[in-house]
Amino acid sequence: MSQFDVVVIGAGPGGYIAAIRAAQLGFRTACIDAGVNKAGDAPALGGTCLNVGCIPSKALLQSSEHFHAAQHDFAEHGISVGEIKFDAAKMIERKDGIVTKLTGGIKFLFQKNKVESLFGRGSFVGKNGDLYQIQVDNKGGKTVVEAKHVIVATGSVSRPLPQTAIDNVNVLDNEGALNLTEVPKKLGVIGSGVIGLEMGSVWNRVGSQVTILEALPTFLAAADQQIAKEAFKYFTKEQGLDIRLGVKIGDIVSDGKGVTVKFETDKGEMKSETFDKLIVAIGRIPNTDGLNAEAVGLEKDERGFIKVDGDCKTNLPNVWAIGDVVRGPMLAHKARDEGVAVAERIAGQKPHIDFNNIPFVIYTDPEIAWVGKTEEQLKAEGTAYKKGISGFGANGRALGLGKAKGTVKVLACAETDRILGVHMVGPMVSELVAEGVVAQEFFASSEDIARIVHAHPTLSEVLHEAALAVEKRALHG
Fold this sequence. Notes:
It contains 13 helices and 22 strands. It is globular, with a radius of gyration of 24 Å. It is 31% helix and 26% strand. The strands form 5 sheets. Strands 1, 2, 3, 4, 5, 6 and 17 form a 7-stranded mixed β-sheet that branches. It has 3 domains: 3-158 and 285-353, FAD/NAD(P)-binding domain, CATH 3.50.50; 171-282, FAD/NAD(P)-binding domain (3-Layer(bba) Sandwich); 357-470, Enolase-like, domain 1, CATH 3.30.390.
């Protein structure tokens, strides 16, 4: 029976990074994962994020943006093109190639760092003294390994909708939405979160008539509402997404030719819509089925999340849990940094993660990104604050890119000027938000950003202007 210092269950962005860092710190490390490639004939590391989530969705978003630009934006630049055709299958093929390259990259990193990769589903069996016994089930072929430390990084799965089953033919989850090889004429999406908006945007840009049904009465309730309302205007009035809020979903019938959804509107009216395809994107739940946590007494909460403290320690000695399977935002970068921190804690180090400084990004066009507190949260807490706002409309770089839409908002403490939140909608704000993260991590003030030299012409100047505006001394607005 093989013995390891550290065994990681799950090779998603949290798990594979935890395994690599543990190996770098001198621990004999193994990582167990049951992921397979799209064809189902070979292992594929990287978890949901790399295989059927973050990475492939961004590939499709970029392809659809190019197609939309060729149709609507090139002429403004003096570029004339002939008949523009779209090949959905080719777009999917490109996406698959990117995924294959990156999954192979993780395999190489495991080999380089001497992480032993074990293919199969990992589950607890029991204990042998101070060692935990973990079964690896490879399609019925079972082996058991032992470990002093276990890091559970099993991620999350799509939340099911009681009214219908996912068949990834007509009723799709995130994986099915990433593998459509034809453009549906009418596409329905249940849920206006990150997955719903991003997938709706992809297929809307390449020709689908997209309707998004959202149960909540507020659009992007977790975001700063000034930014959310501006984004809603872009998505609906300018891009043609039909986003309906406050909807109660009723019966859903898939007859092989299409999917009919009955729902009640926010005004109490009963409606029915038939779609060629329906994407169900109502969130994700922790993936703990099959972990056999009961065998060792590993505690979960009422929602199925593994209970951990601020350091990702569970109720069991030397058992840790990270990423989507524990409390906090279900974000790949949150899982990644928790994985690094846990490996370093096992080594006796004292890393720290400030969960208030984790950035959020939605990769629509325009993008949405934020870090820290929203204006609504500050008001609810009774925190005195001041704010500065600036737009991309007069920014030279944004105008040159043809993407001069959006806003940056900086929120700062009224007494100390410390930055409390940075919120953005606009071009490439997924990259710009990093400056806000750094500022908050180093307890910067709005004046600090205002006095830092920002290159010209750049999109970052809009953040600079917003910081200046906190003290009502914006130079271009």
